[in-house]
Amino acid sequence: MRVNCKKTLHPSAKATERVQKLRQEYWDKSLDVDNEFLMGLISS
Fold first, then answer.
1. Residue 39 lies in a domain
2. CB-CB contact of 10 with 16 (8 Å)
3. 37 lies in a domain?
4. 3-state secondary structure (DSSP) of residue 12
5. Relative to the CA of 9, which of 29, 37, 42, 44 has its CA 20 to 30 Å away?
6. What's the CA gap between 37 and 23, in Å, rounded?
């Protein structure tokens, strides 16, 4: 019987200051999306 184990490797760059800054910029941009525009896309 073969047992497969899920490999959980975490990249070392995950917690770097550069990556954290990029994540924050992404979230800031995603919050700027107009909700009425999105509702128009959903309802069409």
1. yes
2. no
3. yes
4. helix
5. 29
6. 23
Cα distance from N-terminal residue to C-terminal residue, the chain: 51
Q: What is the pLDDT along the chain (44 residues), one digit of tens a residue?
A: 677 776 666 666 677 888 889 989 988 888 777 777 777 878 86
Backbone angles phi, psi at 16, to 5 degrees: -70, 160
In which domain, by residue range, is 19 found? 15-43
For position 10, what pLDDT does the model report? 66
Q: What is the pLDDT of residue 19?
A: 85
Retrieve residue 29's tokens. 């941009």
Identify residue 26 by its one-letter amino acid code.
Y
